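Recall the central idea of this unit: under ordinary conditions, the amino acid sequence of a chain determines the structure it adopts. In this exercise we apply that idea directly, starting from the sequence alone.
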Amino acid sequence: MARVNRLMSRLYWMMLGVVVLPVWLAAQQADSPPPTPPPVSTSGPAAGQEPEDYFRSLLKAELEAYHAENMEQLFAMIDPRVEKMDQRRMILNRVFELTDIDYSLDHFTLLYHDAELAIARYQQTMRRVNGPPTMTDNQLNALMIFRFHEGQWRIFEQVKLEMQILEPLATQPTSAPASQPTATPPANDSSGEETATESPTTQPAAAAD
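Accordingly, the structure predicted from this sequence is:
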């Protein structure tokens, strides 16, 4: 009789595990934060991939890492030769704390590339979801410079060509003058106040002096 009871007890716990374990795993997955975007290959275009498609994917991955507030992936895509990375990381941490910004890549054209350098012209739109009203919506036209360093393609520098301030609703945007070339990342104007009106990993080296 005792042997039968032990067998019944084992069967009970086995059946309980079959029912409860999947429910527990599903609850754990529901409570987990959404996965961060997968890293994009920085070693170069895949076989048969057009160079323009490849460099577009690098810039899109930068924006996706920004949306995910994935600091490590974001900075892993930047050329390590860019100056004052620690200071830029501190600024971007504060931007993440204060704002929620939506970036979209509207247009991308690869202008030039060789074994060590690539230059693209692109247009992006920035919309403020949450954060200080001083961070205005805008549409940016710029050049992005990529450099090949130690076997990896990295984002190196942004050159702003034109930025239009986008007013809420249907108000006509106004053009802002182009600035001097600025190194990546992140946004910080000459007054020392953090901004997020440009690419999340660009602008400007001069402001940090």
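Residues 2-31 form the longest helix (30 residues).
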